[in-house]
Amino acid sequence: MIDVDSDAERPIRTVTLDRPEVRNALTVDGLEAIEAAIDDAEEAVVYLRGAGPAFCAGADFEAVSGLNGDSERAESFARLGQRVARTIEETPSIVVAGIDGPARGGGLELALACDVRVGTPESTYGEPGVSFGLFGAWGGTVRLPRIVGEGNALELALTGRSIDAEAALRLGLISRIEPEPRTVATEIAANADDALAVLKRRLRDGDDRTAQEAREAQAFADLVAAHADDVDAILE
């Protein structure tokens, strides 16, 4: 089950993974609900969190078992998870993952797709799939080395071990440790919506450097024109 709540005072949509009895493990329906919640967001910031003592345990074991060894269905399930992660990555909204408790497998992969990852002191992280002959296939093999470096990604994935918040911070897996991660979403939401969306596009741009710099300069020019009065007010 996925709960969606919008803050009337701030442009924040809260998306809660709400199956605490199974550590918020995700089924096909759950993945599709996350996709819809992100797609429908008109708020500048989306805050993704888990209910109860976990962020997300990843794919629901019953859902994986229900694939019955069918390779076509397995690929379809992986493609769905990848699509949801891309939706998080590509939405104009800034998506902040508030990670409290375990983020495992597919849960970690969804967090990797978010723009900002904030963990509580109790948060833990891991890709345990190798211990039962699988691996995270929701884009984790692409994003994990990009975020923590190839060597660290290989070591985490190949051992299947979990790490605590301090280790995750050192690796760059999360950017901050906060008792209440939502405060970071609130900080971000206090800024101009259009500037947030432009910054996300530029910082997420995977094109060659020359093309990125050209678009960066044009985006900066557009924002200067749009916020001329704000800049003048600062200088007064």
TrEMBL record:
- Is-annotated flag, keyword Isomerase? yes
| InterPro entries with a match to the protein in the record | ClpP/crotonase-like_dom_sf, Enoyl-CoA_hyd/isom_CS, Enoyl-CoA_hydra/iso
- UniProt KW keywords: Isomerase
GO MF annotations for this entry? Answer: isomerase activity
**Protein's UniProt keywords contain Isomerase:** yes
Instruction: Please name the GO terms of the biological process aspect recorded for this protein, alphabetically.
Output: fatty acid beta-oxidation
UniProt xrefs under Pfam families? ECH_1 (PF00378)
Mind telling me which SUPFAM superfamilies this protein's record contains? ClpP/crotonase
User: What PROSITE patterns does UniProt report for this protein, alphabetically?
Assistant: ENOYL_COA_HYDRATASE
Matching PANTHER family: ENOYL-COA HYDRATASE, MITOCHONDRIAL, ENOYL-COA HYDRATASE-RELATED
The family assignment reads: Belongs to the enoyl-CoA hydratase/isomerase family.
Question: What is the name of this protein?
Answer: Enoyl-CoA hydratase
User: Which organism's genome codes for this protein?
Assistant: Natronobacterium gregoryi (strain ATCC 43098 / DSM 3393 / CCM 3738 / CIP 104747 / IAM 13177 / JCM 8860 / NBRC 102187 / NCIMB 2189 / SP2)
